[in-house]
Design brief:
heterodimer; A: 325 residues; 14 helices; 18 strands; B: 265 residues; alpha/beta; 9 helices; elongated
Chain lengths: 325, 265
């Protein structure tokens, strides 16, 4: 990241000043609205992925979005919010390759506005998920997102806050007291998937080490086996994978486990296909109503196998399928 | 191939000489080429630059253009003469519009804003680079290329202490020649960023559609299935497919081959 664009309206914002201070050697370019750079036509996501810029901006509206119940993990109501768009990792299955014209990061620094809307929607047992449009932890040293939202959710203990991540940048958690209604949810895949498909991401074992460290401190941990990827020798690969995972992680201290097979919304598929290096993973997918996904027979077979395997290690009441058939 | 646009023959001369380019066109625009570069002398001014860029892309229909660079001298209120500066923001004084070039290439050198004027602007009152082509160059190139491969490199030729009325041709040649290494780095960066793009799968459907009638929709489906089979390393034989003699049977056969090509175990 060599370049930081900053909306003029947030140049004097305290979080912006922290970012400028932290990144003194970078080019700072003021702009009027982040959309001038992020939303313009004729951009190459794949080229920008080589050296993304950071765009510091203010979000004006639509801070918190409701998500369908089948994506939930037992909450009475489920929402997601995105303080950050785009991710430093380069997972070949990631829908972001089809979602945004630009690979530049957009950081919305007006966290208080997100928190206001969360308070309006918050009820008992409601869940607020992060890490859909970005990794929740990877850019923490720039965003201070976790450092600022943990105390907020600690003050609101009747709601849950999920941090979805692959990052081993867990310092903001290891130096904080445990917040009981926070779930640190790691996306995990077998080693062969992690190495060939989850490019630029921490290795499986490094993620497992982070999870283990957090579990020992008492953090709620979620395991997200999503997307489950079809690979040759699938059953052997995934059975060995689960055995390895649960040799490192305590089931007793798990909050939840979710599964879902690889799927991409139809509206994102064509653009994603242009940006993906590993086109083979897309070749297994067929168009089915609103998604490109594995055939129903294959998807159900993959999920069923994984669920059977997981139930050897985890109480089945903790396992949720985040996919509709 | 990379397109280079310069406003005057004087600015072109050291570039043509260094990269050993040959003249291939004299009118309406002088054009020079090497194996990797296409240089056009656009003449001074935004409108002329826009015409020249459109003319260039019309000439280059059989070539893959990987990027475009506008190189030239520019004034600045306070910057040092001879400094080379990559433009990170363009403002058009006439239309009041702004373009932000992409900074996706890894660039360690200096960058600054550029204001493009319709007439020579010699009072050095604003603190940006000053020229007469840059915005037009970007505006035109964006019809043909994505923004991540379009750049403007300006060489400071005059400032408030040494105004433009002191500039002569020999000085301009020296300024451009001194900054050829910077231009080379920019050219290399554009080639490099292009190499990050995924390789496209070229699928040949002609051997099949030349012998069996396919509707346009069926041709698209055929290409999709052949690409899938190729990616999944599922073998198929064109002759055996052709024996089926109908588009529908060929498509169904391919679908079965693919579905049977992988299984849960």
């Amino acid at each position: 990241m060599d370049t930081i664009y900053i909306e003029k309206s947030v140049l004097e914002h305290p979080r912006t000043k922290h970012i400028i201070e932290k990144h003194k050697s970078k080019k700072i370019i003021p702009c009027d609205r982040y959309t001038e750079i992020f939303n313009r036509k004729k951009q190459s996501f794949r080229m920008q992925k080589q050296n993304p810029a950071l765009i510091v901006a203010k979000k004006e509206n639509s801070f918190v979005h409701e998500i369908p119940a089948h994506y939930g993990i037992g909450g009475s109501s489920n929402y997601y919010f995105s303080h950050l768009l785009n991710c430093p990792f380069d997972c070949q299955y990631c829908f972001l390759q089809g979602m945004y014209k630009s690979a530049n990061y957009v950081l919305f620094v007006n966290y208080e506005d997100f928190q206001s809307e969360i308070l309006q929607k918050l009820t008992d047992n409601s869940y607020f998920f992060t890490g859909y449009d970005a990794d929740s932890l990877a850019l923490e040293s720039t965003t201070n997102f976790v450092s600022e939202f943990l105390p907020f959710f600690e003050r609101n203990p009747n709601a849950y806050f999920e941090l979805r991540t692959k990052s081993v940048n867990i310092r903001s958690l290891t130096t904080s007291k445990v917040v009981p209604n926070c779930i640190v949810a790691y996306t995990l895949s077998p080693k062969i998937v992690s190495e060939k498909i989850e490019l630029r991401s921490p290795s499986l074992d490094n993620r497992l080490n982070s999870i283990s460290e957090l579990q020992k401190m008492g953090w709620n941990i979620g395991l997200r086996f999503d997307p489950i990827m079809y690979v040759e020798d699938f059953q052997k690969t995934y059975s060995e994978f689960f055995e390895h995972v649960f040799s490192k992680i305590s089931e007793r201290k798990l909050h939840s486990v979710t599964t879902g097979s690889f799927r991409i919304p139809v509206s994102l598929f064509k653009t994603m296909k242009q940006n993906v290096y590993n086109k083979k993973i897309l070749a297994y997918l067929d168009k089915n109503n609103s998604n490109y996904e594995y055939s129903k027979k294959l998807a159900q077979g993959l999920i069923s196998f994984c669920n059977d395997q997981l139930c050897k290690y985890v109480d089945k009441n903790k396992v949720f399928l985040c996919q509709e058939f | 191939m990379i397109l280079i646009a310069v406003a005057t023959p004087t600015e072109a001369r050291p570039i043509v000489s260094h990269f050993r380019m040959k003249q291939i066109n004299k009118a309406p625009f002088s054009i020079y080429m090497s194996s990797e570069l296409f240089l056009i002398v656009t003449n001074i001014g935004k409108l002329s630059c826009i015409s020249a860029i459109s003319y260039s892309f019309g000439k280059l229909t059989d070539k893959k253009i990987l990027g475009a660079i506008n190189v030239g001298i520019a004034g600045h209120k306070s910057k040092q003469i001879n400094e080379a500066v990559l433009v990170h923001k363009l403002y058009d004084d006439e239309t009041k519009k702004t373009i932000y070039p992409s900074m996706a290439i890894k660039w360690k050198g200096k960058t600054d804003e550029l204001t493009t004027f319709s007439k020579p602007h010699l009072d050095y009152s604003i603190d940006t680079l000053l020229d007469m082509e840059g915005y037009g160059f970007f505006y035109a190139c964006l019809n043909f290329l994505n923004i991540d491969v379009i750049h403007s490199l300006k060489i400071i030729s005059d400032n408030q202490h040494l105004p433009a009325n002191n500039l002569d041709k020999n000085r301009v040649v020296d300024l451009v020649e001194n900054n050829i290494p910077v231009l080379q780095k920019l050219i290399d960066s554009i080639f490099k960023i292009n190499s990050a793009l995924p390789i496209e799968n070229k699928i040949e459907i002609d051997p099949i559609i030349e012998n069996v009638h396919f509707t346009e929709t069926e041709k698209i489906k055929l290409a999709e299935l052949l690409e899938k089979a190729s990616l999944l390393e599922i073998g198929y034989n064109n002759n055996k497919l052709l024996e089926l003699k109908s588009a529908k049977k060929i498509l169904n056969n391919l679908k079965s081959l693919i579905e049977n090509g992988y299984n849960l175990h």
